[in-house]
Amino acid sequence: MPFSATTPNGGTAPTNTLDAVLSIVRNPGSNVATLFAQLPASGTPFSPVPSKAPADLTLDISYHGGGIDAKNPSGVGVDAAGNVWVATYFSVAAEFSTTGAPLFANGITGGGLLNSDALAVDPQGDIWIPDGGSPGVNKGFGSVTELSSAGQVLSGATGYSAGGISYPTAIAIDANGTVWIPDYGNSRVTLLSSIGQPLSGVNGIQSLQFSFPLAVAIDTNHNGWVANYGNNTVSKVSADGSQITSFASGTGPDGIAVDQGGYVWVANQTGNSISELANDGSVVSIGYSDNKASILAPQGIAIDGSGDVWVANLHSHAITELAGSAASSPGAILSPAAGYASDAGFTEAYAIAIDASGNVWVTDFSNDTLTEIVGLATPVKTPVLGPPETP
């Protein structure tokens, strides 16, 4: 096989087999057809030979069981041990080992779990899940469930519901253990302590700038960045809630992440684009897109250890990688035209997380799977508490 076939776009051709293999692993979307053509038509050791070239050379593994089957898995997070936690829309939380083995055969139930769209892991390794509108809980306005790393419910029979919680949709936790919760039902933001006590008053942080918030991320100064689906803005909220400033985003912001340089990346679900803002709110780009080739109804968003941006798309059935803020061309699409892992069978790729080995974990809401794309991203320290750090 000519080493030139393993040369990434704009790169230098490897001069030995080890470097050639490493180049393929690091650039699984490059020269796929050329590399596939090197396979023999039949015979060992490469048998059976696929009938056609794959979309890319990523290795993906989809996992079932653990309580997520027929439950619509949604939020995903990775703890310090590398175990992967999954929320579902129908009353179950699940934990998988680093190799994808379910650690609870039927998942974890109780504690108010229901209609959960997100999940976060705190500095102590506890798991926090917002429950949007559980009947009989908080007058039907929902709560937040806290689980220990062993799967025990720590937040009582119905979860935490004080502090103005109303149909909570998302969650993020900073390095201090402060829990940020956007309340979709009353367009407010609730802050809880590490033991579930309200830090933002009886009614939460109130502002007319909030409009049906669906996502939140934390920067290095412990500010919260809230994605307002209802008015196409993101709001920067000080740690004590006393200062709120809002900035234009794309259409339908539904996912948000902050990178190592403080830049804010927003997944605009109905706008089919990814926006980038500086930490002062100035717009770097109102929307990177690829004409719906892979960025189609972007939902989940995560930053890897090198600052690249990873997006789970509800409708393109693939994962998109974009160059980060420190790159020469921020927002440039680094993944193939169809995205990565388009052969993985995604139907509604929902949430996305990266672990300390660089594996990318994706929940598929309607396909009831947790998919691991092996070693595709740059590793991050887990759990993620604010902008990502390298392990």
List its traits.
Methylamine Dehydrogenase, Chain H, 2 domains, 391 residues, 4% helix, mainly beta, four-stranded antiparallel β-sheet
Task: Outline the structure in words.
The protein has helices at 17-26, 32-36; strands at residues 60-63, 73-78, 84-88, 93-96, 120-121, 127-131, 143-147, 172-173, 179-183, 188-192, 205-206, 213-218, 224-228, 233-237, 244-248, 253-258, 264-268, 273-277, 283-288, 298-303, 309-313, 319-322, 349-354, 360-364, 369-373. It is mostly beta strands and 391 residues long. It has a four-stranded antiparallel sheet with strand order 1-25-24-23, with no helix packed on it. A hairpin with a 5-residue loop joins strand 18 (273-277) and strand 19. The longest helix is centred in the N-terminal third of the chain and has 10 residues, at 17-26. The model has no long low-confidence stretch (mean pLDDT 94).
